């Protein structure tokens, strides 16, 4: 299968989220009437976001032949929680969706750590090559990170304005993930299998 151009994958991954953000800003403070029902901006943006994300995910699968577990789970939860928000005309379900996603991944990684499994390595082995100590440390840190992100999402959507939450979801959460990865650069280096520090163990 021919590898798509480098810009295609990030466009398909982040394009739907930016589309959601643009629709929300365009309709912010307004109501949209569809099928005899009035929807506020966030619910209307969610209504459009669901099929756009589904289409982008399908296109990425067709172009690359694979999807990450996070992409699949995210799509399922967007359909479920986003659909509930649209069906019940209640944006709170969609706002809770990131919390559920992060708690789910924290639970999976936490269990894998306790059970001595290496599920994170299975998911990221194509991009990262580390010894077992490195994978254990990264699994623990990612578990704690997902728990922190779940808490942060709950605090923001429950205590701040809807617009603030949309900005946080669109830009804040991805930025925090990037900061996390950059903050673990030394771990990737010290435990790389082809590096001088590979094979060392230590506390997380």
UniProtKB/TrEMBL annotation:
UniProt xrefs under InterPro entries: YciB (IPR006008)
Name of this protein: Inner membrane-spanning protein YciB
Top-level lineage group: Bacteria
Major site of localization recorded for this protein: membrane
Keyword Metal-binding: no
Job description of the protein: Plays a role in cell envelope biogenesis, maintenance of cell envelope integrity and membrane homeostasis.
TM region(s), chain numbering: 12-29, 41-61, 67-88, 100-120, 140-157, 164-183
Keyword presence, DNA damage: no
Cell compartments where the protein resides: Cell inner membrane
Keyword terms: Cell inner membrane, Cell membrane, Membrane, Transmembrane, Transmembrane helix
One Pfam family linked to the record: IspA
Lineage of producing organism: Bacteria, Pseudomonadati, Pseudomonadota, Alphaproteobacteria, Rhodobacterales
Membrane topology: Multi-pass membrane protein
UniProt similarity note: Belongs to the YciB family.
């Amino acid at each position: 299968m021919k590898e798509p151009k480098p810009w295609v994958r990030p466009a398909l991954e982040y394009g739907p989220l930016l589309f959601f953000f643009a629709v929300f800003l365009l309709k912010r403070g307004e109501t949209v009437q569809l099928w005899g029902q009035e929807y506020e901006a966030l619910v209307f943006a969610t209504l459009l976001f669901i099929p756009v994300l589904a289409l982008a995910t399908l296109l990425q699968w067709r172009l690359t032949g694979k999807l990450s577990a996070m992409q699949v789970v995210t799509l399922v939860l967007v359909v479920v929680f986003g659909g509930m928000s649209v069906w019940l005309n209640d944006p709170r379900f969609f706002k809770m969706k990131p919390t559920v996603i992060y708690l789910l991944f924290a639970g999976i990684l936490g269990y894998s750590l306790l059970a001595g499994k290496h599920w994170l390595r299975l998911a990221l082995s194509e991009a990262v090559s580390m010894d077992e100590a490195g994978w254990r440390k990264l699994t623990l840190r990612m578990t704690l990170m997902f728990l922190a992100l779940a808490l942060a999402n709950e605090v923001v959507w429950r205590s701040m304005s809807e617009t603030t939450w949309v900005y946080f979801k669109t830009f804040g959460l991805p930025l925090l993930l990037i900061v996390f990865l950059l903050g673990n650069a030394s771990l990737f280096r010290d435990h790389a299998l082809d590096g001088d520090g590979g094979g060392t163990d230590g506390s997380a």
